[in-house]
Amino acid sequence: MNSKVRGSALRAVAVMVSALIAQQALADMPQPANQPHPQMQGQGKDGQHKWAPPPQPVKVLPDNRVVFTLRAPQASQVEVQGGWPGGTQGDSHVALNKDKQGLWSVTVGPLASNIWNYQFIVDGVKAQAEFGRKSPATGLPKDEFAIPGDKADDFIPHGAARGSITYTSVPFMDSQKRFTVYTPPGYYSSDERYPVLYLTMGGAHDGSRDNEDSFVFTLLDNMIASHRIKPMIVVILDPDAPDGSSLGNSKFHGGGNETDPSYVTAAQTIVDNIVPFIDKSFRTEADREHRAIGGFSSPGAQGFLAGARNPQTFATIGTFSGGFPTWPGVGKQIESKLHYSHYTGPDLNRVPDMEKLGAYIPQLNADAKMKLVFMSVGSDEPLIQTFDLMKTFLDKRGVKYHAIVEPGEIHDASNIRISLRNFLPLLFK
After folding, report:
1. CA distances, 180 to each of 170, 208, 315 (Å)
2. Are 242 and 274 in contact (CB under 8 A)?
């Protein structure tokens, strides 16, 4: 066997061993109650293994420090990767220390209030237990934890009455569109009619992974219970065309995704197919005054497009970090004065050509009599350049708007949570 082949074989064996160690570490983490896998450790009498309770992988202390623990006695290195201190801007890798029993642990923080993600890395292999499962105590996916405070409390269950979730689909262009419908507490015990918010949130929010939307449901439950928002029906969907409208990223550094004309067709299909289905299937207040549409990034801009082109259907439209440069043929290259050392997210060197953007939405003007046009953006993401152009555009069109810059936020999940929480109380007044 030559040295090249021998080296490849040794590397393959090393990867397999690391994967086996990571798999054992994964099995040692807490399992769902309906799938018990007792953990065994050491040798008891007659060569029988002794049962050892699995360690709690993440524990938030009263002072907001966080303890991470993993049993992996055969591992030679364990790290925890987390989203603190600033999401994708500042992902942290922290080494754990091993004790004589094979328990690895480390304490980090104190961390700022937020919902943070984490995963263990065992000898270079990512090992995260139960992806997609939610904790009964927090309602969060098992790879997330909450630090109490302003940025987390509304997204954790506090005993409020819970709404109901329905998964359904309708014909959509040449396929079927699957989506999720939230109905507020009390919907099925009354004959009341409700306003409807359509949230255009992207591919992971098509109802196939309910953990992606759990924060939305919890936020709605908490804000309805505290009377900060009106009870409403919320439709969560991926607004894209069935085969996708993406043409890939722009060819220059600091650009972003580009789309084809099916992006516009799909936006109109929301109005033509999904809205009538919801009005027929649920007890809605079926008029423009009681419909709103909005969302995040490029899907959010697609929802904005649907609403702006159809003011007879929607009186309220909004975007959170709206990806307007992704509209077909609209994005143009610039030499930005911003720098990635501070700003995190797409479209550093791209903004929309406002004349081309305006041609898509001639209906959005003072005569549309919109109740609310909402826009938010993180202070530390490049789309703040597009945000400023959109404000000027709306001013010229004579359209009043509500604009918020979220301090310290970038183009990530925290931005979505904060923007949605600011948007909801403004609806249906």
Report:
1. 11, 9, 22
2. no
